Amino acid sequence: MKILVVEDERELADVITRSLERERYVVETARDRTTALLKIADHAYDCILLDIMLPGGSGLDVLRELKALGRPGNVIIISAKDSLHDKLAGLDLGADDYLTKPFHIAELNARVRSVLRRKTLGGSNTISAGNVRMDLDARSVEVDGVVLALNRKEFDMLTHFVLNKDRLVSRGSLAEHVWGDHADQGDDLDFVYSQIKNLRRKLKQGSATLEIQAVYGIGYKLVEA
Amino acid sequence: MRLLNRSLLHLSMVLLLVLAAWAVAFFFVVRHAVVDSIDEGLEDQEEIIRYRLQQDSTLLHVHDLGLHGFAIEPAAAKTRTVYRDTLLYVPSEGKVEPVRLMTKVFKHKGEFYRMQVYTSTVEEDDLVEDILIALIGLYFTLLLTIIIVNNVVLRRVWRPFHAILAQLKTFRLGSGRALADVPTAISEFKELKTAANALVHHATDTYENQRAFTENAAHELQTPLAIAINKLELLAEQQGSEEERMAVLGEVLALLERLTRLNKSLLLLARIENRQFPDAQRISFAALMREVMEELADLAAHREVSMKLEVTGDLERSMDPVLGRILLANLVKNAIVHNVPGGSVRATVDAHSLTIRNTGADRPVDATRIFGRFQKETTADGGTGLGLAIAKAIADLNGLRIVYRFDGEHVLEVRGL
Predict the structure, then answer these.
(1) pLDDT tops 70 at residue B382
(2) N or C end of chain A, less CB within 10 A?
(3) Which phi and psi (to 5°) does residue A103 adopt?
(4) Rounded CA separation B107/B72 (Å)
(5) How deeply is B147 buried, as exposed, middle or buried, from its count of CB atoms within 10 A (0-12, 13-18, 19+)?
(6) Percent helix, strand, coil in chain A (nearest 5)?
């Protein structure tokens, strides 16, 4: 799987690259519009992470070029601008997703996975880890073929964990992914804990081979037991 | 062009037209009067001649009109008396002159005679000339009067205006609060003064708010940044176990997440105030409230706060759905966070208002400051202190009003203006 990261901020490009390489993707970076246009002309990428505000022009030009080349899709826009207008413009030009900076690495991971899955699996939208298999369209979970009943939040949490298996998921990332953007009030994210407790219990009762480990002070990590 | 001269220009042009029209009318009226008096004079002349005719019948043979001033000749029958203006050679003057000629038929000793009498009307031209000169004199006298009045009186009358203008020209934000008083009795200038003062007050208040806001925002950002840096510095030299190091990292992450939330809130506030939410849809507050309370149920459960929604009617409003959600979410979150374990949040929606009551501290919060930015009850909860400020900004943008009151419970009520 080959991924192109178009991002002018060196530090951010670096962090994204390292994180994606841990997932065993081949990652290339472009730090301005011209380089990005050259790269997409020469190579086909499975996924492109695209910053909108680039030196030398807008990232939307890259989208247009992709469309002109007849290779639209698999683009995730990463932008500092959280405006509906930009979002719509990007999605209109064929982007698959829109992620506003700053974002959690776990969230980026999940989005990249889902874009790649849509591309490769052609319809069947399932993910699995250990003996757990999740159908994201039907929103159902099976452990060794036996249905495990989860409520909406537990399902969303497990999805996020499975997509970030063996990786640290911070409480902030989890809260944002499952409970939406609690943009303002209180950084008291302890309420996440009681939900985790329920999910752990259900996984254990269903004898799943997955375990949610606590990473003290930061968050959690899903590992195969 | 100055207002003074502009009005003068218009006035002088209009005055010229009015005076010209008036001069024409005046000329005809005067001429009519003059002709009347000439005609009367001609009749008198004719009567004198007829009187003389009683004694001297030779007058019947005077035929030379120019020489004698009259002429008589026999006529066939009685005809109407005719006056007309014509030219006649007058031997006494030795030239042709404009005259007024009366022709009248009269009866003398059983015979009809036609008599013609004339008077020279040369003076009429002089009359026109006199009238014209008088009117031109009047025109310039009037103009001069207006100029003098304009320059002396109006200049004095406009003095408060120029005083206010001079103050506005030199006014700088941040240098003072109000304009110096300009005494005036003229209602337009009083209005101008009031409007200028209101503008200055508003601008000054906004400026002060913005300045305080920038200062506060910078300070709010500064503190977590400083803590995060210090914690990382400590981590760099710390020799502890993996777990201890992770704990420090967790604290730094939490600080950075708080900064992120704060920054998002600030951006949101700016966008609300720049009116960057143009998408207006019909929103049912009852339905939205139900969704928001469901989303926040976990937070409430964790805080051991019970939540209840009572719907007796539906408040509907046309607004951006994103903002509507943020408005309600912030109000409910506020009620959950500033609560006590075992407390309650009760929301009511009816056709005119939305009310959220919550248990909490036993004393009321300062109602004037509750919606202010960075107004925090405690520093412990880690909130940004912008939640209610954002709610208020959204309400203001959409013509809603949020009122706080305390009746043992803290009550926030949203209603249309």
Answers:
(1) no
(2) C
(3) -130, 165
(4) 12
(5) middle
(6) 40, 25, 30
How distant, in Å, are the alpha carbons of A92, B261, B396 from that of B275?
Answer: 23, 21, 11
Look up tokens 């001297």; give the residue.
Answer: B56
3-state secondary structure of A120: helix
The 10s digit of each residue's pLDDT in B209-218 is 888 888 888 8
Contact status of B294 with chain A (Cβ, < 8 Å): no
Query: Helix, strand, coil proportions of chain B in percent (round to 5)?
Result: 55, 20, 25
Instruction: Give the nearest partner residue to B249 out of A184, A186, A218, using CB atoms.
Output: A218
Give the C-alpha separation, B345 to B357, whole Å: 6
Average pLDDT, chain B: 85
Indicate the residue type of B88.
Answer: L
d(CA B411, CA B389): 16
Are B383 and A184 an interchain contact pair (Cβ–Cβ within 8 Å)?
yes
pLDDT, position B224:
83
Cβ–Cβ pairs < 8 A, chains A and B: 87
DSSP string, B341-354: TT-EEEEEE-SSEE
Give the whole-angstrom CA distance, residue B304 versus residue B300: 6
**So what's the pLDDT on residue A183?**
46
Angle between helix A10-22 and A105-121 (nearest 10): 60
What are the Cα distances from residue A187, in Å, to B177, B261, B294, B329? 40, 9, 19, 15
pTM exceeds 0.90 for this model: no
3 state DSSP class of B360: coil
Identify which of B358, B367, B354, B362 has the alpha carbon closest to the alpha carbon of residue B398: B354
Answer whether B264 sits within 8 Å of A188, measured CB to CB.
no
Residue scoring higher pLDDT (B318 or B212): B318
Q: What is the ipTM of this complex?
A: 0.72
In A, which residues are within 8 Å of B247 by CB distance?
Answer: 216-217
- The single residue listed with the structure tokens 């996020």 is A160
